[in-house]
Specification:
The protein contains 14 helices and no strands. With 267 residues, it is mostly helical. It is globular and about 55 Å long.
């Protein structure tokens, strides 16, 4: 008796593989999340926007951590130098520089206390779990999967441009210099995603590896979506408000929605 083995699955062509990766972002990126949609339509109150800034900061400060884990997996000086630049982009070369510092300035422009942001004391449990899951993914998975997960950056430049326009139009109470993080990430995201995509296309030569790369990117989209789920749910009546200090500081914000309606009528 003989057993007929299924023929090995052929790898996708580079063009098809790239198209499948891009399709994940187009279909599952968090720009489609209801909270992001409301943000860009100008429907967030000050309390909601501050809650998002606070909890997203917990993700921001872990970006260089996950990137350090990826650097440790890379097997050449050239690749390590390339990826180390990402850590520098967020941590800066000196105090007062880098993406983390720019996010802190965004928080201050929105009326949040820098020390509270750095303490993380108001970060929601769901956000902590989502971020920890992503960091552990980069710690435990292969270099291919860790790098592929970063390909949400393919969609980031477009999102940053939409966000800048939305903040300038709908949230003028945030000073323009507070938007420096978003402005910087347009070019950084374009550069970083191009580098990561080149690596993933080079490394994933078999169908199983290609499928693992697509799954890794899908997982990262889930992380970003789960983060926004937690932020959105925290604002619902009866939710356990871990971010209560920000909300208490915002009790004078009850006229937000009326103000936005008036701005829309003027436009």
């Amino acid at each position: 008796m003989t057993t007929t083995l299924a023929p090995p699955t052929e790898p996708w062509s580079p063009a098809e593989f790239e198209a499948r990766l891009r399709a994940v972002g187009q279909g599952r990126y968090h720009d489609r999340h209801p909270f992001n949609v409301r943000m860009h339509e100008g429907d967030l109150s000050k309390a909601e926007l501050r809650r998002w800034i606070t909890n997203r900061f917990h993700y921001q400060i872990h970006i260089p951590v996950k990137d350090a884990l990826i650097v440790a997996k890379l097997d050449s000086s050239r690749l390590r130098r390339m990826w180390l630049r990402r850590i520098e982009d967020h941590d800066g070369r000196a105090e007062g520089e880098g993406g983390i510092e720019r996010w802190l300035r965004l928080g201050e422009a929105a009326g949040l206390d820098r020390r509270t942001l750095l303490s993380g004391e108001t970060v929601l449990p769901g956000v902590r779990l989502a971020v920890e899951g992503y960091v552990n993914f980069c710690r435990l998975r292969s270099p291919l999967e860790a790098v592929a997960a970063s390909l949400t950056e393919l969609s980031a430049p477009g999102l940053m441009r939409v966000r800048i326009e939305a903040f300038e139009r709908h949230y003028p109470w945030i000073a323009a210099d507070g938007l420096a993080y978003f402005r910087t990430r347009v070019d950084q995201g374009r550069r970083d995603s191009a580098e990561a995509l080149e690596l993933v296309l080079e490394w994933a030569r078999t169908r199983p590896d290609q499928e693992r790369a697509v799954a890794a990117l899908s997982f990262k989209c889930d992380v970003l979506w789960a983060l926004l789920d937690a932020v959105e749910c925290a604002g619902r009546p009866g939710a356990d408000g871990q971010d209560a200090p920000a909300d208490r500081a915002d009790r004078d914000d009850r006229g937000d929605r009326d103000d936005r309606d008036e701005r829309r009528e003027r436009v």
